[in-house]
Amino acid sequence: MFSSSFITWTFSTIIRVADLSKPLDFIESDSIDIIIASLVLHYINNWLPVFEEFQRIFNKNGAIVISVHHPHADWKWFNRPNYFMKELYEDTWNIEGKLFTVKFYHRTLASMYATFRKFHFYVDVLLEPFPVKKAKEVDPKSYEHLLTNPQFLFLRLKKLKNKFGMT
Question: 113 Cβ partners below 8 Å, 6+ apart?
Fold first, then answer.
């Protein structure tokens, strides 16, 4: 059991919900150690203000952990003519019989990387994850597909420590 004071402290100190398209005024400069943005960034059209704020709030040892749709997977799935074009994709999800329209932005890995560099972040870790073996028992066809068709990218970004890009 957690005490009510611990829960209150956790929500007031650690967990924040914010609109990343707006300044994060409630966060002091150079005060953040880690940001986790799991399946968030591909819903944002313009990453420049987001990473400008990330650059401002991060301390020198900070890290950003990101997961995004794999750009090649989305391009292939939606059968678009130009992989290199930033484009708003629209998908329909069926959740328990209800249809939901989901919109997100396709951008290339190179354009993601350019944004990271512009704001002095470097890619410390890049993973194209494989499905866990147990998934084969649940859905063998999807499991086999995911072994040869990456669906997501996992990245860890760190802040460059000087203007020459040296860590």
Answer: 123
> Domains of the chain, with CATH numbers?
4-159 (3.40.50.150)
What is the enclosing helix (H) or strand (E) of 76? helix 71-77
DSSP assignment string, 33-60: EEEEEET-GGG-S--HHHHHHHHHHEEE
pLDDT tens track for 138-166: 999 999 999 999 999 999 999 887 656 55
The pLDDT, as a whole number, for residue 60 is 85
Q: What is the mean pLDDT of the chain?
A: 90
The structure's pTM equals 0.81
What is the DSSP secondary structure assignment for residue 79, as one 8-state letter?
A: T
Taking only the tens place, the pLDDT of each residue in 112-146 is 999 999 999 999 999 999 999 999 999 999 999 99
> Distance (Å, rounded) from C-alpha 41 to C-alpha 144?
27
Q: How far apart are CA 132 and CA 109, in angstroms?
A: 24
CA angle, residues 62, 128, 130, in degrees to nearest 5: 125
The single-letter code of the amino acid at 100 is F
pLDDT at 6 over 80: no
Question: Helix or strand or coil: residue 146?
Answer: helix
The C-alpha atoms of residue 127 and residue 154 are separated, in whole angstroms, by 5
Residues 52, 24: contact at Cβ < 8 Å? no
